[in-house]
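User: I'm putting together notes for a lab meeting next week and I want to include a structural view of one of the chains we've been expressing. I don't have a solved structure, so I'd like a prediction I can at least talk through. The sequence is below, exactly as it appears in our construct file.
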Amino acid sequence: MKRFLLICSLSVLALGSEAASPPSGEWVIVVGGPSLYQWEHYKAYPHDHWWANFVRAARIRTEQLRTQLGPDAKITWLVYKQGYLDRAPQEHQDLIGLINSVRDKFNLNLVYFHAGSEVINYLNSGQPRDQTKIAGFEYFGHSNRACFMFDYSSNIDSACKSWLHESELTKIDRRDFARGAYVKSWGCHTGESMSKKWYRATGTHMIGAIGKTQFMMEELPILISEGGKWVN
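Assistant: Thanks for the context. Below is the predicted structure for the 232-residue chain, given as structure tokens.
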């Protein structure tokens, strides 16, 4: 009897481990651009002192995924290129070259984009989605409760001209995603509205923040608002 119970326990543990494993397919990481000093320097709490806020967070997450998924798993970065071209003169560095070096180190598929429609197009047809489903989708960048803001405070002070709004999510084909796909926005406020619209549009749950998040140098973004929490 004891042996039977032990076998049952091991079977349950094995099933739990299998259920926790991510589905196979492509992992897509979207990286927004940083703000510019010319707009932010006079603010009491300026954004993006460091140009690599979002790139660094995406890199940390990519290291985790490489450990979990292996060296050959398909991981794609979609990076808002113009933001880093615009920030480069401020930094006196080739920021695109630095981003390309992350691609080379981690064996990434790196795709630069300009508009939110290009993100949707990649999700729908960047890979043959009947063969390569999206196993994971994560966003690192500025956001509000209804929008990924790729160039916040870059072209225009405290505003943006490149975004992906929750009203556009219905353009994403629900069949793009693997069953059990992992989806998370690491930006501010997206758990307050956009997560709900994402689920209605795609059938996948997007974890998002209630309140603000803070991008860190050596760890993934953290919640900083009083009463803040992750929801999906």
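A couple of points you could mention at the meeting. The CA atoms of residues 27 and 59 lie 13 Å apart. Confidence is low (pLDDT under 50) at residues 1-19.

User: Perfect, that's what I needed.
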